[in-house]
Design brief:
The complex is a heterodimer. By secondary structure, chain A is α+β, with helices and mostly antiparallel strands. Chain A has helices spanning about 5-15, 65-75, 80-85, 90-95, 105-120, 145-155, 160-165, 175-185, 200-225, 250-265, and strands spanning about 25-30, 35-45, 50-60, 135, 140, 225-235, 235-245, 270-275. Chain A contains ten helices and eight strands. Chain B folds into two domains: about 15-250, Type I PLP-dependent aspartate aminotransferase-like (Major domain) (Aspartate Aminotransferase, domain 2, 3-Layer(aba) Sandwich); about 255-380, Aspartate Aminotransferase, domain 1, CATH 3.90.1150. Chain B is about 35% helix and about 15% strand. The chains are: A alpha+beta, B alpha/beta.
Chain lengths: ~280, ~400
């Protein structure tokens, strides 16, 4: 069960500004019933002052989608269009006292609807998304959206992108594409690879190998139901044992090679990995 | 507020009789059944009594029952045992609608070099026996098909499938977690080699399950260690829960027809009423061959998690196949395999009943659900009013 704040619950159970404004000045229609959430935002704008005098929403979606939509309408009413455009998805989430991270995409949907409605009011044609740029086919997410949301929210991992845009959360096929986009996006700021220590004492070497097995190798094996144990280190020979699903697994040959490559890369070129 | 608990395919209440039977084994009789002293050793007899009760409900021999920790362990054990028993063969047949305990494990084996056939289902969630026949081949080591589906309640033709497989001498496992106590199972005549069950779906506690292994079936244990369960499942026995499972099975034995009748009457009343009062709703599943306690309904234009959380405000517990109510963003694999349109999957709600539900509770649900659906459709850009007209909303 999701941990929703009282404010999310309140805005879900008794949402404000439900419905559709008749003869609206701006309409923002985002999402689709197939994707699992959709929001139609209608605005009334005072042409003299540029202020949003009324905002109503209709949402198909889960509790946090409904609460985020209602929160959005509360946030923008009385603001000028330029002020409203400064509202980010994080502001919607903050207004609600926070959203579960897996539900952040609901706040992103709110932000998108707002931008669409204001563009509509200003007569700006929204670009038709190019087929080639579609990254996640399950939830219709474009590369442009992934980049935009990643920059706005400082997202660096595929999981975060899924939480904020749903991209990669369906069949999962596009996860490597998302990773590539993130790599490209943050290329300048990406943390550098750990520098290989020059000369290690035997003790340092053992400690380092142990640490790499713990942090780099074990989690992956455990995710597959297996495990690894460091048995001994004699000179350049690293003796390991596979446990659980890994023992006797057809892929263990491949795994040993992977482990050896990793240890050679991070510790010392001359290491040889063997099983017990 | 006492909840109206209609989520019994997720888990059930421990029967008071079961709790009472278990209590002494959590307090006074805490010994280890493997001990030489009477204090511990006497528990061995109690475990065997429980085994008799489980076997009794299944029409099995007591020595064909192995106690495990849960349905998932039983399923995993059965599959691993099968592939270890016939090491040369590497093809497994299952379905697209299995519980994750089988489905994810088969996918895992698929990544380890096994070839897995996931049999499709039609719009009602039914299997086509021809698909099974076509999938069978020389390399097939195991067929594992659930007895009944947890989401939609469909009962699969286990007897027919078993007969086909027995003729070809191919191992057959069935995950019967959802059927225990709801429909009669008689392994004297049912051609199944292995069968999984779980305590907490049957008014026993969580953390106890059993695996039936037909006498003569080659078996390889999953948990290796002590001699418990005749070396077929190591680990000190969960004595109290085993007693509890035995009691739950004894309670179910002989009452299945009566209980099944009671459940299907309540279920049908709920279903018929909601289909009538909520326009644009539908039943998911095979209404001709379903568990008596399960109703899976889809309400168009509204989203399942929103329905559940509004029901929650009235203390009504149900579940949904919608993406948002699961941990992932993936909507129900069962409803997708059936080709249920996404719009209907997002608004799917499963009500699953137990012997403890009453007519008054069902009346309450019949009153509340249409109200919630109407409210949420008012919120929805896709909502319609009773006349099928798009609503011009004035909140």
């Amino acid at each position: 069960m999701w941990e929703y704040t009282d404010k999310v619950r309140e805005y879900f159970l008794n949402p404000k500004n439900i419905g559709e404004i008749e003869n609206p000045d701006g309409v923002g229609d985002v999402g689709s019933i197939v994707c699992g959430d959709a929001l139609k935002l209608t605005l009334k704008v005072d042409k003299e002052t540029g202020k949003i005098t009324d905002a109503k929403f209709q949402t198909f979606g889960c509790a946090s989608a409904i609460a985020s939509s209602s929160a959005l309408t509360e946030l923008i009413k009385g603001k000028t269009l330029d002020e409203a455009l400064k509202i980010g998805n994080q502001d919607i989430a903050d207004f609600l006292g926070g959203l579960p991270k897996e539900k952040m995409h609901c706040s992103v949907m709110g932000k998108e609807a707002l931008e669409a409605a204001i563009d509509n009011y200003r007569g700006i044609e929204r670009p038709v998304e190019e087929e080639g740029k579609l990254v996640c086919k399950c939830f219709d997410v474009t590369e442009e959206k992934i980049r935009k949301v990643a920059i706005e929210n400082h997202l660096t991992t595929v999981d975060e992108i899924t939480d904020y845009t749903k991209a990669g959360g369906g069949c999962g096929e596009c996860q490597s594409d998302i990773e590539a986009i993130l790599k490209d996006l943050w290329a300048l700021k990406a943390p550098e690879k750990p520098v290989k220590p020059k000369k290690l004492t035997n003790l340092q070497k053992i400690a380092l190998i142990q640490e790499i097995i713990e942090s780099e190798i074990r989690p992956g094996l455990q995710a597959d139901g297996g495990d690894i144990e460091l048995i001994d280190i004699e000179g350049n020979k690293v003796v390991i044992a596979f446990r659980g699903m890994c023992s006797g697994c057809v892929k263990s040959g491949m795994t040993i090679e992977g482990i050896q490559t990793k240890l050679r890369e991070l510790v010392s070129e001359d290491l040889v990995v063997e099983t017990q | 507020m006492k909840p109206v608990y209609l989520d019994n395919n997720a888990t059930t209440a421990v029967a008071p009789e079961v709790f009472e039977a278990m209590q002494p084994y959590l307090t006074e009789f805490y010994g280890n059944p493997s001990s030489m002293h009477t204090f511990g050793g006497q528990l061995h007899r109690k475990i065997e009594d429980a085994r008799d009760s489980v076997a009794g409900l299944l029409g099995a021999e007591p020595e064909e029952i192995i106690f495990t920790s849960c349905g998932t362990e039983s399923d995993n054990t059965a599959i691993l045992s099968a592939i270890e028993s016939v090491p040369g063969k590497r093809h497994i047949i299952t379905t697209r609608v299995e519980h994750p305990a089988v489905r994810s494990f088969c996918k895992h084996l698929g990544r380890k070099g096994y070839r897995i056939t996931f049999l499709p289902v039609n719009h009602q969630g039914q299997l086509n026996i021809d698909d099974l026949m076509k999938a069978l081949n020389e390399d097939t080591v195991l067929v594992t098909i659930m007895y009944a589906n947890n989401e939609i309640g469909n009962i699969y033709p286990i007897e027919e499938i078993g007969a086909i497989l027995r003729e070809r001498q191919i191992l057959f496992h069935t995950d019967a977690v959802q059927v225990m106590g709801k429909i009669p199972v008689d392994l004297k005549t049912l051609p199944v080699d292995m069968l999984s069950l779980s305590g907490h779906k049957l008014h026993a506690p969580k953390g106890i399950g059993a695996l039936y292994v037909r006498k003569g079936t080659r078996f390889h244990p999953y948990l290796i260690g002590g001699h418990q369960e005749k070396g077929r499942r190591a680990g000190t026995e969960n004595v109290a829960s085993i007693i509890g499972l035995g009691k739950a099975c004894a309670l179910a034995t002989g009452n299945i027809d009566k209980e099944s009748n009671y459940l299907s009457n309540l279920r049908d009343k709920l279903e018929v009423s909601l289909l009538k009062t909520c326009p644009d709703s539908r039943v998911n599943g095979d209404v001709a061959s379903r568990l008596p306690n399960t109703a899976n309904l889809s309400f168009e234009y509204v989203e399942g998690e929103a329905i559940l959380l509004r029901l929650n405000e009235y203390g009504i517990c149900a579940s949904s196949g919608s993406a948002c109510s699961s941990g992932s963003l993936e909507p129900s694999h069962v409803l997708r395999a059936m080709g249920v349109p996404f719009t209907a999957i997002h608004g799917s709600i499963r009500f699953s009943l137990s012997r403890y539900n009453t007519g008054e509770e069902i009346d309450k649900v019949i009153e509340i659900v249409p109200k919630i659906i109407k409210e949420l459709r008012l919120l929805s850009p896709f909502g319609r009013d009773d006349a099928g007209k798009k609503i011009a909303c004035t909140s």
